[in-house]
Each structure stands twice: as C-alpha cells, then as structure tokens.
C-alpha cells in the first residue's frame, strides 16, 4: 500500500519504505493530485496553477517534467495504476491501493467516540504541507485545520465528560503546541488540573491562555474567564473517578442546524476571521449590506467555524418565508425545539430557555421584520448573559450593544492593469465567476483571450456574489464577451465614465433586470408567479398554481427547469429526502414579487390560495389513516405557504377559504404540537365580522377550534360558541358538523363533571354518526363515552366501550386514536391485574404515538408504562419514566389529557411515599436527563422484561 502523509510533513512510503519524490514542484503536483483523487484535471489548469508566473509553454514543460519525476519515484508495475494521464488530463486513480492522512481526517464522523477521535487525530502532525506557499495549498490548509479544530474541541468535551484527565493533559498540550488559539484546550487543561487538585497549574494555564490570545489582540472569552473564576473559588466540583467504560461512552451529534450550502465557498477568509473576532468581543454582531452581497454565506461559514466554541450549540433561524412580525419569537422557538408555555408569551419562554445555555443564535434575513427582530434580540440579550447573536440584514437592528459589520464585495482586479489568465484566480470575484461557469459549462476555462471580458463583468457587477453567479450561469448560452456587451448596454457604463458610481443596490437590480430580460415571455410569467410562494414549493404546486391562464400546465415543467438552469430558481437540497422542493433566493423573490404586483398578482394569489385549501382538505381524511405520518410531514413542510394563503384569504375578504383552511388543519395543529398557533388563529378568524354568518364553513371551523381546546381543558370557556354551533347545525341541516358539535358539547359537560348531560350529548353524536355511516368518527365518540365511564369509576362499562371502539380504528389504522384507546384499555386491564395484556397494549400505544411524533400521547403512554413498573415492583424504573414524562410536559409545554394527568399525579404521589428521597431523586434525575428518543427506547426495553 502507498502511505501518504501531508499533515506536518511531506512523506510517501510503499510497504514501509520511503518513496523519494525529490523536487518541490513534483511534490506539490503529487499532493494536489492525491488530495483530489478521482478527479481528472486539465493539463493547462495544472500548469497555470503550479507555475503562475511562467510563460504558458514553460509551465507546460515544467508540468511534464514534474509528472516524469513522480512516475519515476512511484513503484513500477502496480496492480492498479496510480496515475491516469492522457494528452489532456491527469488524475490520481482513486481505486489505487493507498492511504492518505488528510482523507482520514475528512472522513471522521460526528458520532465518533473519544478513542476513535484520538486514533485519527494522532495522524495530524501539523499544518498541511509546511513550507509550501502555493495558493491552493493555503486554502486547503485552512480547510483541514478548521476540521481538525472542530474535532479537537469535540474530543476535549468528550474527555471531560468521561473524566479522562490524563488524556486531557496530553491532548490539550498537543493542540496548544500547534499554535493558533485553542481556548477549549486551555479550559480543558484548567479543569484537568483542578480535578487533580493542582490549583497552581490552573492559574498558570489561565495565564498562558491570556498571553497566547494577546498575540492576536483578543481577550479570553467570557466562558473561559467564568470557568477560571469558578475553579479558583472552588465552585466547580470535578470528580476524579475512573474513565467511563467503552460500552457506556456516549456520542453526540453536533449541536447545530446550520444549513449545508451546495456550492463551494470561495475566498473571504479574512472576512470570516474578522466576524469570528468580533463575536469573541461582542454579543450582537449584524452583517449588513444589500441583497446578494453574500451575508448569508458569510454567516454560515463563520458560524460553522464556531460550532465547537459554544457548549449548547450554534442554531440557525431562517426568516425568509416569514411575513408576520408577531411570529418571529415562535419561529426562533421552533428552530431550537423550544415549546410554548400556556398563558406565557413566547419571548418569556425563550428567555427562560437561553438563561441556562451558552448558544450562538444566527438570525438570517431580518430586514423585512426589522422591528420584531430588534425587539426580540434586545429582550434576549438583556436577560441571557451567555447568549450571542449573529444577524444578517439589509439594515442594522439599531439597538444598544450592536456591532455593525458591513459585508464587502469580493476582491476585484484593476481594469486598467493587464493580467495573464493564470494569475486572475487570486481575485475572489474572478475565482467565483470561473468556478460557477465551469459548473454549468464543463468546457469553460479562463484564458488570455477571454480574461479581459471576465474582468469587465466582475467589475461591472461590483464584485457582488449573487450578480456574478447569475452572470456565470449564462456562459452555456452566450460567450463572456457577449455577456460583457449586454452589461455595457444595460448599465450604460461606457458612456457614464464612472464604473463605481452605481450603488450596489442598483447594480444588483440591474443584474436581475438583465437576467429577466434574457428569458422568454413564458419564463417571465412563471418567474412572476413563483413570487406567491413563501418558503419552498414543489413542482406539483407550481404546475397547479402557475399552469393556468397564459401558461399551460404541460409547459410548466420545462419552464421551471429553464429557470433552475439560469439560477433564478434553486433546488432546495435540504429537503430532498422529503421530495424535491424548489425556492427563490429572497432577493430574487422580492424582485419577482414587484413584477407580479404590476401584472397578474391577484390571479396568482387566488390560485395559490385555492391550491393550499385543496391540499389541506385532501390531507384531512388521510390524517386519520395509516399514512397520517406522511401527510403530517407534508403539511409541516408547507406551513409557510399555508400561513400565506390564510393571510391572503383574510386580506382579500375570501373568508370562506380562510375558514376551510383552519378547519382542515385541526388534526395537524394537535398532532404536530402547534396547538397554540391554531388556537390563536382560529380565535381571530372566528371573531371577524365577515365570519359570523351561519355557514357550514364556520360551523366546521368552530368544531376544529373546540377540538384544539379540548386537550387544554378549555371547552367551558367556549360554551357560547358550542351552543351557537348546535344551533347552526340544526338551522343548516348539516348532520356531519352537528355530530361533531354534539361531541364537543358532551366533552364540555364532562369538564363540568355533568356526566349525565355529557352521556346524553355523546350518545346523540354516536347515533348521528351511525346514520351517516362514518364508523371511524363513531368509534372516536365511543372512546369519549368510555372516558365518562372512567371519570364515574364505572370501569366495567368503560372497558366495554373501549373494546367496542377498537376494531374500526385498527382497521382504519388511525394510529393517533388507536394509541389513545389502547392506552385506556391498558390502564383498565392493569387495574384488574392482567399485567401481560395491559403491558402489550401500553407498549403499542407508545409506539403508535411516537411513530407520528405525537408528544402529548407519547408522554401519556410513558406515564401509563410507569404504572406497569409499579405493579412489577420496579419502583425506581417507574420514577425514571415519570421523570421523563415531567421533561416531556416541561419541554414541549403540552398538557396531558385530563385522565392521563390524574394518573400521572397519582402514581407520582405513590412513588414519593414508597421511596426514600435520595433513591427517588437519583431515578428522577436519570429520567429527566434522557432525550425523548432515549426515553422511548428505555420504556420499551424495560416493559419487555
């Protein structure tokens, strides 16, 4: 095997024996080929990259000589050839038997254990190719070091969790010896010395940290200073126990949801370092600049570099698809999976969450919600001392403590100077244009003949990344000379005499204008129509909404493909697993929206509204069948569009559509834990003057409202609406909705403990469903009748009703309701001592609830399984399960159903009486420390034994 080490040295061995590639150019060529194994590089590209200051003919001769030296050094007649070369290209054969230290580092996964990290990181003996100063080496060197730094930070964290203090002393010092400024290493070393009781070394390590950072003109972070103070004052108690056995070591996925861009990040290393430095000293940094300057990509790149420096993660909040300022806090909460608290503003819930966390929050695209973002940032930063925020916006948030960083354009060559093509890629703008042009036209290359036109294009576009990418996308249609001429005509720069006078904002608008002018009229119609989408969209949605009027549905697929090819529409790679989705960059969407408003805007918005009403109503019956999980996921993806449809329905006085939308979402609101948003939207819409007419749409929406209020025990508050619904049902002769209204009248009576009245209403509902022939709905009402029996402690009648409801739900595979009735039957059987059957039913209930991510039902099933553990005399297991349930209730902010809540509290009291406090608290803490997924696995495992 060929063994290649490029980290900290240049070394090639074959079966342990050195392979001598003597000349530096040959080493550089070999290193580049092995690092890009499997990629065939054009000879002229390699010559220009490795010998940029030589004449083209000389550079090609040098390349041939370097290749000859490599071939001479490599072992002769291998089983698989190492190098694949022809007259045009050269590549290192990825199939050849070889090992590369840098490749091992790049393959290192995020779930690697501490020992796996140590095994791979040991190969990192220093920076890539020390002493090599080629431009490509420096870029790759930075890339590999950032990977190494990220995994070193993870290693320090894992070693501390496992109390492996001696390993920390070794690896912390290794990291520091490599230079840079690894604060996590100093913090880990301080903790290790403290654990060993050597406080003098804690102080000495902190002083070393201060001095090392001073070289970079920065101070230790607040996290480092706080740790030192806690250690110095004895407030940080560190155990010195043995290392955790390998089978018990836990691995964690990175605490981040940062998007992964599908194109390479080019240049801007200095800018990224500046942003990181600013975040080291400031708690709020806002990247400002016009649309298309690359604020989002800079934020992603900078935040990625900081993942290891924030204990509780780096979290991304994309505000692009949001139009309602009041939903900004909710959107942040959803991004971090922070659930709303009943009767508490979301901002207060976020403050409680962030107060105990060390997090970098990235708010992207704030400009259209500037006031709401500013208010939220101000509130959070004032109350949460360990929170930092990185924002991107076209304008500053303008609050106290904000540091504004204007995002610059890409570096540009001077148009007055003459440049050889091979020297131009050192300018970021040209590098970006060349890279993107090659991605759409593989034969494109930067030559001395077209270099002048490329330089003109980059300058005309003021180094704006988005504008350059749009221009580069055209090389498969026209030459760069033609692109440059079109820019001249469009901007009128040749006659204005000043190439820098145009504001960046106008430059970008002109670029999009130019791109818009290049497309055909059918493409323009589709482009304008896409502006109605909020967030992403599917091909099916585009065909239905835009394939009307001037466009035929059969034309849309081809037209959308052309817009994708021309970079006006992008494929949303993040959601490919859920089916292909598309989206517009926000700047382009706003441009399309302006064009739409001047033409057929209302028509497209009406089509959009109609489509999403139909989608919601198509989904509705599926939410009670076996495929409910798939449809719940689909609605989740479309929520931005559905919200936009509701907003347009209200703005355009199409109240019936608004009522139909909110009514059709009733199962979704509840199953996917959006109760509070559903309650608020329904309350607002139902109270509108144009919504009070007695129509079936209003009646259905009221029943949906009651459905969401039910788990919160708030139906009594809506009694007047329930009475109204019963009256409307009779007046409209709407038996379907009347049957639902009778159900909620019965549940409301149950809340009041008026069980006779409750039974009467529910039995009327059952009878009406039976006449309609809706057997699934009939079974659901029968479950409610069973619950009345349980509240009355008539357990025999309750069991009979639950048994009667089960077959239809099982046949329909309505897992949400099947889980509910299984839980009730299991609870009753457990009371009667039928442990095995009860356990089976409760396990099935848990699995169904978890399969559709119904957190309310999942928590209730876990609480019911705690009763199984009590029956089995596994008291500590029961406490652990209830600790999990407590976390579910607290973290999701979703209450259990009334009977489940009663059972939960009863078992909790019982266990507190049976166990001493230390035993109880140990098991309780174990449960609360689990993730919900771990909790489900624990419950299923324990209940099986």
Widest sheet, order of strands: 9-10-11-8-12
Poorly predicted spans: 241-253, 489-507
Annotated CATH architecture of the domain at 269-405: 3-Layer(aba) Sandwich
Helix content: 55-70%
Task: Write down how many β-strands occur, each being a DSSP E stretch of 2 or more residues.
Answer: 14
How would you describe the overall organization of this protein?
By secondary structure, this protein is mainly alpha-helical. Among the domains are: 104 residues, Arc Repressor Mutant, subunit A, CATH 1.10.10.10; 121 residues, no CATH class; 137 residues, Rossmann fold; 98 residues; 123 residues. Helices cover 61% and strands 6% of the residues. It has 44 helices and 14 strands. The strands form four sheets. It has a five-stranded parallel beta sheet, with helices on both faces. A four-stranded mixed beta sheet has the order 3-2-1-7. Strands 4-6-5 form a three-stranded antiparallel beta sheet. Helix 28 runs antiparallel to helix 29, helix 32 packs antiparallel against helix 33 and helix 38 packs parallel to helix 40. The longest helix has 27 residues. About 3% of the residues have low confidence.
């Amino acid at each position: 095997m060929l063994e290649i080490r490029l980290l900290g040295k240049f070394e090639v061995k074959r079966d342990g024996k050195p392979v001598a590639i003597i000349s530096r150019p040959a080493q550089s060529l070999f290193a580049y080929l092995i690092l890009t194994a499997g990629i065939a590089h054009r000879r002229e590209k390699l010559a220009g990259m490795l010998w940029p200051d030589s004449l083209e003919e000389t550079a090609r001769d040098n390349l041939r000589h370097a290749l000859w030296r490599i071939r001479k050094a490599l072992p002769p007649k291998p089983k698989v050839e190492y190098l694949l070369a022809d007259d045009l290209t050269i590549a290192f054969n990825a199939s050849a038997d070889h090992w590369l230290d840098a490749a091992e580092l790049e393959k290192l996964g995020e779930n690697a254990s501490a020992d796996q990290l140590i095994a791979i990181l040991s190969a990192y003996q220093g920076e890539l190719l020390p002493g090599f100063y080629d431009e490509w080496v420096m870029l790759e060197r930075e890339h590999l070091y950032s990977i190494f730094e990220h995994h070193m930070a993870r290693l320090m964290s894992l070693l501390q969790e496992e109390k492996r203090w001696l390993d920390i002393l070794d690896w912390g010092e290794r990291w520091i010896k490599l230079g840079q400024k690894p604060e996590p290493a100093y913090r880990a070393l301080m903790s290790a010395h403290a654990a060993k009781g050597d406080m003098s070394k804690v102080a000495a390590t902190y002083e070393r940290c201060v001095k090392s950072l001073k070289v970079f003109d920065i101070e230790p972070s607040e996290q480092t200073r706080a740790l030192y103070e806690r250690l110095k004052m004895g407030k940080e108690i560190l155990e010195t126990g043995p290392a955790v056995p390998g089978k018990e070591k836990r691995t964690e996925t990175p605490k981040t949801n940062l998007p992964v861009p599908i194109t390479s990040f080019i240049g801007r290393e200095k800018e990224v370092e500046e942003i990181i430095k600013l975040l080291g000293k400031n708690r709020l940094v806002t990247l400002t600049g016009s649309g298309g300057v690359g604020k989002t990509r800079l934020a992603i790149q900078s935040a990625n570099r900081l993942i290891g420096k924030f204990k509780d993660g780096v979290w991304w909040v994309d505000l692009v698809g949001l139009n309602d300022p009041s939903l900004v806090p909710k959107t942040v909460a959803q991004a971090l999976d922070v659930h709303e608290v009943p009767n508490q503003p979301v901002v207060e819930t976020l403050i409680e969450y962030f107060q105990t966390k060390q997090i970098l929050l990235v708010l992207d695209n704030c400009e259209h919600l500037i006031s709401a973002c500013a208010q939220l940032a101000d509130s959070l930063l004032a109350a949460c001392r360990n929170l930092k925020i990185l924002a991107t916006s076209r304008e500053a948030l303008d609050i106290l403590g904000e540091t504004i960083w204007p995002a610059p354009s890409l570096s540009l060559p001077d148009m007055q100077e003459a440049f050889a093509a091979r020297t131009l890629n050192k300018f970021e703008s040209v590098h970006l244009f060349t890279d993107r042009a090659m991605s759409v036209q593989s034969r494109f290359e930067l030559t001395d003949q077209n270099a002048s036109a490329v330089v003109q294009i980059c300058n005309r576009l003021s180094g704006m990344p988005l504008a350059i990418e749009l221009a580069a996308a055209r090389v498969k249609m026209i030459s760069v000379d033609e692109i440059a001429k079109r820019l001249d005509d469009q901007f009128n720069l040749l006659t204005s005499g000043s190439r820098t006078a145009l504001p960046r904002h106008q430059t970008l608008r002109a670029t999009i204008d130019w791109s818009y002018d290049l497309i055909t009229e059918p493409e323009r119609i589709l482009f304008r129509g896409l502006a109605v989408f909020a967030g992403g969209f599917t091909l099916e949605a585009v065909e239905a909404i835009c394939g009307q009027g001037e466009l035929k549905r059969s034309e849309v697929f081809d037209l959308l493909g052309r817009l994708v090819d021309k970079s006006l529409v992008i494929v949303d790679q993040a959601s490919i697993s859920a089916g292909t989705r598309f989206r517009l960059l926000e700047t382009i969407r706003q441009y399309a929206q302006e064009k739409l408003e001047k033409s057929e805007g209302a028509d497209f918005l009406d089509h959009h509204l109609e489509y999403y009403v139909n989608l919601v109503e198509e989904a509705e019956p599926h939410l009670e069948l076996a495929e409910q999980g798939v449809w719940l996921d689909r609605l989740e993806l479309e929520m931005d569009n559905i919200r936009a449809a509701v907003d347009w329905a209200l703005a355009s006085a199409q109240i019936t559509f608004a009522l139909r939308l909110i009514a059709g979402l009733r199962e979704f609101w509840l199953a996917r834990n959006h109760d509070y948003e559903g309650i608020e939207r329904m309350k607002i819409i139902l109270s509108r003057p144009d919504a009070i007419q007695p129509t079936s749409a209003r009646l259905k929406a009221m029943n949906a409202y009651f459905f969401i209020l039910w788990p919160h025990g708030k139906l009594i508050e809506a009694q007047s609406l329930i009475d109204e619904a019963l009256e409307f049902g009779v007046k409209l002769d709407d038996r379907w909705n009347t049957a639902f209204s009778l159900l909620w009248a019965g549940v409301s009576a149950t809340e009041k403990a008026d069980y006779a009245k409750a039974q009467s209403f529910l039995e009327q509902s059952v009878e009406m469903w039976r006449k309609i022939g809706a057997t699934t709905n009939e079974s659901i009402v029968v479950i409610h009748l069973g619950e009345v029996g349980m509240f009355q402690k008539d357990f025999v009648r309750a069991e009979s009703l639950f048994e009667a409801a089960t077959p239809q739900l099982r046949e329909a595979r309505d897992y949400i309701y099947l889980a509910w009735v299984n839980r009730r039957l299991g609870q009753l059987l457990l009371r009667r001592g039928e442990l095995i059957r009860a356990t089976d039913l409760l396990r099935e209930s848990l699995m169904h609830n978890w399969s559709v991510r119904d957190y309310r039902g999942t928590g209730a099933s876990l609480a019911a399984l705690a009763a199984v553990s009590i029956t089995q005399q596994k008291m500590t297991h029961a406490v652990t399960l209830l600790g999990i349930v407590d976390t579910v209730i607290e973290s999701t902010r979703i209450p259990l159903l009334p009977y489940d809540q009663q059972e939960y509290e009863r078992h909790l009291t019982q266990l507190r009486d049976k166990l001493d406090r230390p035993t109880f608290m140990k098991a309780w803490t174990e449960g609360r420390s689990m993730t919900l997924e771990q909790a489900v696995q624990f419950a299923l495992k324990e209940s099986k034994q």
